Amino acid sequence: MKLCPKPLTCILSALLLGSASFTFAETAEEKGLAIAQQTKESDKGWGDMEAQMTMVLRNGQGQESIREIRLKSLEQEADGDKSLSIFDKPLDVKGTAFLSFSHPVGADDQWLYLPALKRVKRIASRNKSGPFMGSEFAYEDLTSFEIEKYTYKYLRDEPCGTEQCYVVEQYPVDEFSGYTRRVTWIDQSENRLHKIDFFDRKDAPLKTLTYADYQQYEGKHWRPDLMKMVNHQTNKNTDLIWTNYQFKSGLSDADFNKNSLKRAQ
Amino acid sequence: MKERVFDVALKHPIWVLLASIILVVAAAAGAKNLVFKSDYRVFFSEENPQLTAFESMQKIYSKSDNVAFIIAPKEGSVFTPKRLAAIHELTLQSWQVPYSTRVDSITNFQNTVAEDDDLIVEDLVLDPATLAQADMPRLKELATNDPLMRSKLISPEGHVSVVNITIQLPGINPVAEVPEVVNKIRELKTQFITANPDIDLYLSGLIMMNNSFAEASQNDFTTLVPLMFLIVVVAIIFLLRTFSGALATIVIIIFTIISTMGLAGWTGFYLTGPSISTPTVIMTLAVADCVHILATFFYELRQGEEKSKALRTSLRINFSPIFLTSVTTAIGFLSMNFSDSPPFRDLGNMVAAGVMIAFILSITLFPALLMLLPIKIKPQKENKSVLMDKLSAFIISNRTTLLPSMTVIILATVVFVPFNKLNDDFVKYFDKTVPFRQATDFMQDNLSGLTSIEISINTGQSSGINAPAYLKTLDNFSGWLRAQPETDHVSTLTDIVKRLNKNMHGDDPAFYTLPANRELAAQYLLLYELSLPYGLDLNNQLNVDKSSSRIIGTFKNLTSNEQIKLEERLYKWFEDNAPQYTVQIASPTLMFAHIGQRNIQSMLIGITFALILISALLGIALKSVRYGMISLLPNLAPAAMGFGIWYFIDGQVGLALSVVAGMTMGIVVDDTVHFLSKYRHARIDKGKSTEDAVRYAFASVGRALWITTLVLVAGFMVLAQSSFKINADMGLLTAITILIALIVDFLFLPPLLMKLDNTAVIETTKEK
Asked: Contact A122/B118, CB-based, under 8 Å?
């Protein structure tokens, strides 16, 4: 099968796409989609990943609370990624493990292992919009980015820190999403997210997520050390601190099933 | 000095008029800064302990300002596919209300069901299109028996339901935010009623109450203020028989009001329900100055005096009493600064300023206007007030019986003062014509009251809420609270935990119990929280580190005393059963429950302060300590009698009435001042006997006194027509007190003077 009938055109268009200079007369929607595809493409091939996640929750009174979670994820070619979260803190949920097969469209498959009950429970719910462990992050903010989850509209170019960013609006496809839209700032040099503004169901500003301290792994994959989410309506905020990123440690599908849940300690 | 002021007013009236206009316009420009704050929180000072407790609780959990759609099918049950679809649609639309953060209804209730090892979490009505009549009994059974929904979102009979929207006002532009919410709510209501003509929809909740504060006040402003003007015009035309005089008085009133409100704007005041009655009160008080000047002016004209001379005489005679009464009235209103509630301080300060502005305009602009306006009076003989002569004759001849019988009447009314009940029920701040009141009464009759009390129970340790001992305490407390006679609904974490425990054991009803250990509880909640949608999380019941949880009790509408007693019982329960936890109790209704009492205590200090100041002023003005002391009785008695009579009219005293004693004192003193000053003039300057002095006092000020009293009573009776009960009660009690004051000054003060003054004179002569 010939994938590319006219090699020269193929090479040319690949070059054009890769250099991110969009010379075609495209609509704002097409350009938004192209940027999303490029973002997804540029991070492709990370295979599997492990990391340590610390959440610091703060309320309007300035009271703090800490959550600690270990995260393992497995890249999927044709579907949403698989992920396994193991809760370490607070101590009374230690050992609880959450397995999720995310899907670009429709409900995710989710299982939770409750060590106190010694059972795996499947959670049948379409809800991904609630707060994750009482934080300002919704579960949907933490699931893997898939092209099909949104429709897009490119807005403008704008400086972001020392970088130049694309500003792209994303509209969730899932009717159960808590948002009408997200406005994302993606830098043009490395396709990294710098900021997301979330708008609630009535299209009022809800939250802002900022990414900081990006590190590059495997010479390709950029990951932030810090994600700060601020809720503008409640004045609560949550910091998400990432440590111990590890890529390609050899995880496989066998590490992401109901049986592996119980073993995950 | 004052002669020079009179000179300018009488000789250059045009200039005085122009200068007044310029000054008034400059002052009035400040009115653009005046905004109306409709938030109920304005009733509380920043240091109010109940407000502080409530605000801190709101920061720890989430805000509880709300709008409640009350859905009442005209007949039959809520549980039909069509009606549930309508509620489902309203629930969806409610997320579009500005500043909404949460919407609770029976359709989006997060129902949990177990199927083998699956936990299904979904809306009770996920897709209304699939609903069939056959589903109805199951849904009704479930909703009307669930402790979270029963009596909160659905009536036990299933005939009334509520969609509750939690609103988080940013508070950046308090003037615009509430109307913004209400406009959207009303749009939804119209849509709903059009689509569902067989269902009634009512609007309640704290946001609707805030809005009613604003709308009731604005309503008052457009109906009561014009009515007041009409009464003033009619009263002056009929009683003093002068169009020009009425016109000049109206100009003074308008100038006084707009410059007072303008100055309030310049100095950063904002308007609230109580303080928006400032114009009505000022109007009433400003009339008195003009009436006194007009009365003497016309008396002189009838004596055949030339216009300018007659006016000058009137100004000369009235300057001191008008000044004195303005100052005492201002002091009375300034006593409201002792109030715990800022809107009443503002009302007091604005009226005090207005009274002084009215005084200044009365001696400058008023004579200038009278000079400019045509005034025709035929010289005629002094027409003696036959009525007043008869009255004084009656009092003098019956003084021996009047004094004891009036004393008995005064004491008999005052005895009832302590029978008044202390009550601030903010629902009843609005009369039954206000839609918010109707909606809330309907809700109370069919579902639950608006009284809510929030109880935060803190373990002091992170994740402490998962401990079995804590959950047990919470469960016991919730059970106890549910058993209290005044309770309609209790929202508690333990109901959720028990349901989850049942779900985790294959929906076996035997497991509708608290989990056996801490880890189980924690893991259930983690599981549950992972599966909740946006806005329906547990953050409104749990704090950030899960060291405390909040129970919300909803109760039948209770009086302030009942609420304070209930609050005490709640604290007592924890003292007896769970002293190890830190318990905090707060809510808007509790704030109102406490404010009446706090305000009465603080106002007592204010009244004492005003009383001492006013009595001292009177003593100085009348150049007699004795008259100052004698004046105490007729000045104090009317307010005390007013509250005694109030027991028979309403019997409930709250925030609004606690300021009446202070503000009426300054007004009732006026009668005493005018009467005593004329009496003293006759006794000392003219050397008349006590009887003749009383006769003289009646003849010279009797008529003016009852005219001003009539205008004042009419004015405050207009205020009494307000649909906003705070203002209506204040108006009514003030009107009663002022009327009593006149009666006391006519029937009690003269016999008292004749008794005390006589003996006193004899004693001093003996000493000599």
From this structure: yes
B715-720 long-range contacts (CB < 8 A, ≥24 apart) are B715/B228, B715/B231, B715/B232, B715/B280, B715/B281, B715/B283, B715/B284, B715/B287, B716/B281, B716/B284, B718/B224, B718/B227, B718/B228, B718/B231, B718/B280, B719/B224, B719/B277, B719/B280, B719/B281
Q: Which of B125, B545, B548, B549 is the best residue to mutate to test the A interface, defined by the most A CB atoms within 10 Å of its own CB? A: B545
- For domain B386-415+623-768, the CATH superfamily is Multidrug efflux transporter AcrB transmembrane domain (1.20.1640.10)
d(CA B436, CA B427): 8
Is residue A70 within 8 A of residue A53, CB to CB? The reply is yes
Residue B363 near residue B5, CB atoms below 8 Å:
yes
Q: Using pLDDT thresholds of 50, 70 and 90, give the confidence band for residue B1.
A: low
* Cα Rg of chain B (Å, integer): 32
Nearest CA in chain A to B520: A116
Cβ distance of B59 and A60 shorter than 8 Å: yes
> If you search the block for the tokens 């001492």, which residue do you land on?
B612
pLDDT by residue (tens digit) across B560-581? 888 999 999 999 999 999 999 9
Instruction: State whether B533 and A178 contact (CB < 8 Å).
Output: yes
CATH topology of domain B61-211: Alpha-Beta Plaits (3.30.70)
Is the peptide bond prior to B279 cis by the omega test (within 30 degrees of 0)? no
**Positive or negative: CA dihedral B692, B693, B698, B699:** positive
Within an 8 Å CB–CB cutoff, is residue B468 touching chain A?
no
Residue in A93, A100, A174, A200 to test binding to B, most B beta-carbons within 10 Å = A93
Q: Give the count of beta carbons closer than 10 Å to the beta carbon of residue B741.
A: 29
Question: How many helices (H) and strands (E) would you count in chain B?
Answer: 25, 12
- Give B19's Cβ-side CA count (13 Å radius): 12
Residue B214: helix, strand or coil by DSSP? helix
In this prediction, residues B287-301 reach a mean pLDDT of 85
Chain B interface includes A234 (CB < 8 A): yes
Report the C-alpha gap between B627 and A145 in whole angstroms. Answer: 89
How far apart are the two ends of chain B, measured CA to CA in Å?
40
A133 and B CB contact within 8 Å:
yes
C-alpha span between B251 and A2 (Å, rounded): 96
Q: pLDDT value at position B379?
A: 59
SS3 B571: helix
Is residue A38 less than 8 Å (CB to CB) from chain B? no
Q: Enter the CATH code of domain A42-263.
A: 2.50.20.10
Residue ranges with strand state E in B615-725 = 652-653
Which among A84, A117, A128, A177 is the top mutation candidate for probing chain B, defined by the most B β-carbons within 10 Å of its own β-carbon? A117
- Domain extents for chain B? 61-211, 386-415+623-768, 435-589
Both tokens of A69, joined, read 């979670």
Checking if the pLDDT of A16 tops 50, the result is no
Beta strands in B391-467 (DSSP E): 421-422, 451-458
Residue B568 buriedness (CB in 10 A; 0-12 / 13-18 / 19+): exposed
Tell me the mean pLDDT in the region B400-425: 88
CA distance A250 to chain B (A): 28
Question: What mean pLDDT value characterizes chain B?
Answer: 87
Q: Residue range B448-455: average pLDDT?
A: 89
